Amino acid sequence: MTSLNQTVFLYIHQFAGRSFLLDDVGIFLAQYLAYFMVAAFLVLAYYQLGWRRKVYVFCEGAIAVMLSRGLVVEFIRLFYHHVRPFSFYNFTPLIQEAGWSFPSGHAAWFFALSLTVWYANRKWGWWFFGLSTLMGVARIYVGVHWPLDILSGAVVGLLSAWFVHWLLKGSREMLYGEKPLAATVHGE
Description:
Layout: H1 4-13, H2 20-46, H3 51-79, H4 85-89, H5 105-120, H6 122-141, H7 147-167, H8 169-176
Helix pairs in contact: 2-3, 2-5, 2-6, 3-5, 3-7, 5-6, 5-7
């Protein structure tokens, strides 16, 4: 009997290897979309009104990503070792990946970045959440993560970004007065 985690993985991964086009899309989303999202975040930070807002948005994102991916994910992986699906089922994934799978470092990184972007600009934030979700599904599709890896990485990323945002509340109030950051972004 397979667990729900395995069942969902097998359902999504069953489509891999059937279409070159679908495989290429999956590989792009799983491996290369990340670069475009980081570039988009840098553009968002750059186009904030005033140099202080630019620096604040960039720093909030950087701290949230470092906390989620660099500290929390690595701390969990010190104590919990979960093999990747391609090792468990003994197949070659569509992209190369090594190390333990739980929680997903990509999901932690990009959901932390997504919430940071959402705090700065709601419209961009929703796009980032959608793209992060697509990236997570693609990483299941290419065979390098289980669904619970992605879900747990997303939770780590969201909690880390929320914590950093909460921690920097005093800095926001000092820099921007009583108005929340999202209400003072250029273009809204």
